[in-house]
Amino acid sequence: MAGDPPLRQVVTRTVEAGIRGSLEGNLRWSAGYFRGENRNDILFVASSQTGFGYFKNFGKTRRHGVEIDANGHFRRITLGGGYTFLEATYQSPETVNGSSNSTNSEAAAGAKGLDGFTMIQPGAKIPFIPSHMLKAFADVQLTVKFLVDAGITAVSSSYARGNENNLHQPDGTYYLGPGISPGYAVVNLGARYQVNRVVQLFVQVNNLFDRQYYSAAQLGPTGFSSNGTFIARPFPSVDGEFPVQHATFYAPGAPRIISGGLRFRF
User: Fold this and answer.
1) Scanning 5, 44, 69, 177, which has the fewest C-beta atoms within 10 Å of its C-beta?
2) Pick from 186, 183, 256: which is nearest to 217 by CA?
3) Low-confidence ranges of the chain (pLDDT < 50)
4) Are the beta carbons of 94 and 58 closer than 8 angstroms?
5) Domains of the chain with bracketed CATH
6) 184 Cβ partners below 8 Å, 6+ apart?
């Protein structure tokens, strides 16, 4: 009666090591290495018998990388930042639904645009997880009561869901879009004014330059053409089946947001 088989508990084994220190009391820094392996990870896979997918325990996945952080105070300026390198990969082979992937089983046989499966090979990167993340900030105490802060967040590209084998390539006809979510950088700016011991005024601008970016992506079928019209069957049939055009869909990031208000501290 259940769509999924009984699922075992996911077990993660982790190893972490690092060092930290300071220079003349003004600069503090740290660096570390981490590694985690998931066994019985849960993955949505394809069934060659039913043509549908289901959740099952997957062999192993691995996440490892390094983290570097530093911050310091210099007169009226406080600076800080951190960088993370993260490699998240599948460590076991598996068959998954790849209907919108240009390298699926049907496309490889010459029948593009039809439902098919893709094979995950050990070492393929897990979708949605960028390899590089950078954050930096600066606080400037202009007066005793007035402070301005700025920060930047930068993230590298990541693979789209449906591109688990990392091999999708658009052809401009049956498959549109690169199968990745591009990297981006967002700048934030804020200011605070301490009216008295209790009341503080603040204003915050997130995404200062109103950067258009995407937080994630997914491969999927589309019935819309480039001019916005809907076409149910854009291609002739192949052995009685009609190919569908597939595209990369994006999750848009937040636009510029301006907020302000009062804070009360008792």
Assistant:
1) 5
2) 183
3) 1
4) yes
5) 11-264 (2.40.170.20)
6) 154, 155, 211, 213, 214, 253
